[in-house]
């Protein structure tokens, strides 16, 4: 399968997916990387991996709708089967989501439905939670609200800083995201009636 990855930052999840794709038996290939930030380090990772990449800055567009239409054009140049959001820090328009519905996934650093939005690690600490984690989900029009595919949990230790907790969560992100993308490539994982379905079973 052809995979396009959207990023805004360091791209460690992108790297994990690139690394997974480099193993002979992996059923997918990253064919393009797009960042809305020109200085995202993930673009350098794509460059080093010889993957087509480009920055498409939202700053030169007047509206979210216009940007997302340009983004669709840029993505579709690569003719992807799957579009992977990996730290892409933009809210997407309904038109964008509809265009890729069922083949668009995101990774969110919380145990959804807890802590949608930003600053998830600090919020979990402040709430006194004993565990935290990460979710990979299909993207629907509701922000961080689409059907969850896979989660990984980590403990929160006494006196954890948000950075320490984030690092613990990141390790899990790099394990579960390539796995979910693999299932999508294999056609084992689909979205039906806004539910995630794996090998015929609703998750
Ligand atoms: C990750 O924490 C991910 O869960 C969130 O954005 C971050 C991206 O990190 N959506 P990276 O750019 O993949 O290192």
TrEMBL record:
Keywords (A to Z) from UniProt: Purine biosynthesis, Transferase
Chain ranges of the Formyl transferase N-terminal domain: 2-181
Cross-referenced PANTHER family: PHOSPHORIBOSYLGLYCINAMIDE FORMYLTRANSFERASE
Pathway note: Purine metabolism; IMP biosynthesis via de novo pathway; N(2)-formyl-N(1)-(5-phospho-D-ribosyl)glycinamide from N(1)-(5-phospho-D-ribosyl)glycinamide (10-formyl THF route): step 1/1
Annotated residues for binding of N(1)-(5-phospho-beta-D-ribosyl)glycinamide: 11-13
Biological process, per Gene Ontology: 'de novo' IMP biosynthetic process
Extent of the signal sequence: none
Catalytic activity: N(1)-(5-phospho-beta-D-ribosyl)glycinamide + (6R)-10-formyltetrahydrofolate = N(2)-formyl-N(1)-(5-phospho-beta-D-ribosyl)glycinamide + (6S)-5,6,7,8-tetrahydrofolate + H(+)
Function description: Catalyzes the transfer of a formyl group from 10-formyltetrahydrofolate to 5-phospho-ribosyl-glycinamide (GAR), producing 5-phospho-ribosyl-N-formylglycinamide (FGAR) and tetrahydrofolate.
Matching CDD domains: FMT_core_GART
Entry protein name: Phosphoribosylglycinamide formyltransferase
Enzyme class, UniProt record, top EC level: transferase
Pfam families assigned to the protein according to its UniProt record, in alphabetical order: Formyl_trans_N
An example molecular function term from Gene Ontology annotations: phosphoribosylglycinamide formyltransferase activity
Residues annotated as binding (6R)-10-formyltetrahydrofolate: 64, 89-92, 106
Sites marked Raises pKa of active site His: 144
Family that this chain belongs to: Belongs to the GART family.
Domain of life: Bacteria
